[in-house]
Design brief:
- The protein has 320 residues and is an alpha/beta fold.
- The chain has one domain: Thiamin diphosphate (ThDP)-binding fold, Pyr/PP domains (Rossmann fold, 3-Layer(aba) Sandwich).
- It is built from ten helices and seven strands.
- It has a five-stranded parallel β-sheet, sandwiched between helices. A two-stranded antiparallel ribbon has the order 4-5.
- It is globular.
């Protein structure tokens, strides 16, 4: 796959933006500045970045409870995201959605979702709308290994194949559904193996290799837009943090975490770009300093923003 230097630098920047945002969120949560649960995407940045590098603003994504990375990769503004986490009026959902329910329809972000397996039917519905309205768009559904066992996911895949809908299913296999390892919840080695049951292409890729993810997603998106129907891409990756902030992670070994951190997608991609001459050490520092400032400004924006007024409690909760 031929990817321009500019696009590779952009992907590297987005991956770092996700990582720095998540690290700061973990610190703010620990300091008691963020209420509710947060599920961080650190370690999985290559998946969202590689997939969304192939999408336009008019294309759609559905996300999960671990959705910050998807939102940033699709173009979400970290200022409005941070404000939402702080429960402020200037947040994407006016402070009412929190970490697990951020949406921005104008960017094609149909919403993160706290319900495991809720995204596939939504993405399939968006794909049906694209097909019905004869739009040259695609819907991408991010879901985890836990959701791969949900009936909603299989129903969505079945319908999407029957109607040849322009949807791509991205299974983010980080090996654990909360604390249950996939070896205890699946009888097949790969989630992608299940694609054959729905007569759709299924492929398993290294989810810590942003170029491999980008290439696989490019082919699946092209196929969907040509009217050939859905695909299932399984990206094998690993979350650096617990299922949620506060998770003691007693269910996984320290050696396992250290082994996966050796395959961290960001330094891995950085080394590749340095070796190719796409980046210089000076440019790397410039990018990281710029993102650090961006995240700091997002935090300040969130802290200085007002909370929603009490009389707005029931606004924006229902549609007619």
């Amino acid at each position: 796959m031929d990817i321009s230097k500019e696009k590779m630098i952009d992907m590297y920047t987005i991956m770092n933006r996700i990582r720095m945002f998540e690290i700061r969120v973990s610190e703010l949560f620990a300091a008691g500045k963020i209420a509710g649960f947060v599920h961080l995407y650190a370690g999985e940045e290559a998946v969202a970045t590689g997939v969304c590098a192939n999408l336009r603003v008019s294309d759609y994504i559905t996300s999960t409870h671990r959705g910050h990375g998807h939102l940033i990769a699709k173009g979400g503004d970290v200022k409005f995201m941070m404000a939402e986490l702080f429960g402020k009026k200037t947040g994407y959902c006016k402070g009412k959605g929190g970490s697990m329910h951020i949406a921005d329809v104008d960017l094609g972000i149909l919403g993160a979702n706290g319900i495991v397996g809720a995204g596939p039917p939504l993405a399939t519905g968006a794909a049906l709308a694209c097909q019905y309205l004869e739009k040259d768009n695609v819907a991408v559904c991010f879901f985890g290994d836990g959701a791969s066992n949900q009936g909603t996911t299989h129903e969505a895949m079945n319908l999407a194949t029957c109607w040849k809908l322009p949807v791509v299913f991205i299974a983010e296999n980080n090996l654990y559904g909360i604390s249950s390892c996939t070896t205890n919840s699946m009888c097949v080695p790969n989630i992608a193996d299940r694609a054959g049951a729905y007569d759709m292409p299924g492929i398993t890729v290294d989810g810590n290799d942003v170029m491999a993810v980008c290439e696989a997603a490019s082919e699946a998106i092209k196929r969907a837009k040509q009217g050939q129907g859905p695909s299932l891409i399984e990206c094998k990756t690993y979350r650096h943090r617990g299922h949620f902030e506060g998770d003691a992670c007693v269910y996984r070994r320290k050696e396992e975490l250290e082994a996966w951190k050796e395959k961290d997608p960001i330094p891995r991609f950085e080394k590749k770009l340095l070796d190719l001459g796409v980046l210089t050490p000076e440019k790397v520092q410039e990018i990281k300093i710029s993102i650090k400032k961006e995240v700091e400004e997002a935090e300040l924006f969130a802290e200085q923003s007002p909370y929603p007024d009490a009389d707005e409690l029931t606004l924006d909760l229902y549609t007619s």
